Amino acid sequence: MIEKERIKHLNHIKESEGDYVLYWMQASQRLHYNHAFQYALLESERLSLPLVVYFGLMDHFPDAALRHYQFMVEGLLEVKSALSKKGIRFVVVHNSPEIGARKLSENAAVLVTDRGYLRIERDFRNRIKEKVSCPFIQVETNVVVPVDTVSQKEEYAAATIRRKIERLLPEFTHPMELGPYEVPMYSDALPVEEMLFENLAEILHDLDLDRGVLPVSHYFRGGYSEAKKHLKKFLEEKYSNFASLRNDPAVDVASNLSPYLHFGQISPLEIYLSLPLDLSENRASMVDELIVRRELAMNFVEHNPQYDTFGSISSFARDTLLIHKNDPRSYLYTKKELEESKTHDPYWNAAQSELVLKGKMHGYMRMYWGKKVIEWTASPEEAYDILVYLNNRYSLDGRDPNGYAGIAWCFGKHDRAWKEREIFGKVRYMNDKGLERKFSIGTYVKNVDALKQGEDSNG
User: Fold this and answer.
1) What is the enclosing helix (H) or strand (E) of 158?
2) Is the pLDDT reported for residue 456 higher than 80?
3) For a tag site, which of 79, 227, 289, 333 has the least CB within 10 Å?
4) Rounded CA gap, 408 and 402, in Å?
5) How far apart are the first and last CA of the chain?
6) Which parts form a coiled-coil structure per UniProt (predicted)?
7) Is 259 within 8 Å of 359 (Cβ atoms)?
């Protein structure tokens, strides 16, 4: 079932003749629980036309490095293999995604795409929506409840959006079946230069990209099947302690699904429907992270055009930080010193090192990590820019609504006012004593040190 609220016509062109139905896969890099792919399949069956699945692979995607490209291509190679088994053609073009989509749409009866929320993803679609010569339909599938259905404005906090989402959940949590279906194979020539998309090393070699951040496939390998392994391990080994231990950086109960959600390699709906049907705190905590806070982040980037800058901060938080902008700082670090984990704080250094080594940081430590950069840089604007840079460059789930919302939260976004203090004003403060009081934080540092030693021994 594909709810009508997920479907949006991006132009007003009536149905036209064509050689195939085109699915422009971009934000949702999977087949399972992909409403956009399912919609394209149904259109192919309805029109008795082949389905062609297209992906545009561009050089120098903003802030992406070799680490991100390898994770993504690992997943796309799995997509290609799965489509091949189903007799569906997968076409990868080495160019900006909208260019290939427009060219391929010239011979298409219908162009279907998924929905992305970042500025660049919206720009891709907006550049061609009035230029394609066939119906152009966007199907939203990377959230459980469609963003525009939840709210038409920027929400103030998780509490305000939670009520809206909880009310709508029953309407948008229907299981999906991928088949059976009858779609003919399209084997004719296409009006694009197809990329030879077979070998991971050769694909990456042919791309012009930042190779300064190395892949982390020994920790996280891309693809739907890998996401399912992490989900299985989470449900079998971690879920029973998730609510009580999820904030403890010394204990690993994280699902580790955020990189896969970022690249659309697994659906949040599939994860939700995999959770035990209990009334436990574990389920409530997981639903809050997976749906409420994640979709609050989607709402943030959709309605706040300055989501990646300090300009996104409003209300009391912006005012109080600027009032205290010139407060004296006990420590000041450069971006390079922070990037290289060269501060006086072993807990912060461990968090930054974990990010660099694994491409992922424990969620609670990410909050501490962000708060300290505000304290150790000359202005909140500089702190914001540095945090966006570090998160985008090293995190597999960087360049993501969740990442931008998480950084904004460190500056008081989606939070309430607290007792006033230097530098932070009324924005929530965190310190090392809190880590020591709540957790065995030394164990976390030792765990990260073991990661470093493992990296050193592997060369």
Assistant:
1) helix 158-168
2) no
3) 289
4) 10
5) 50
6) none
7) yes
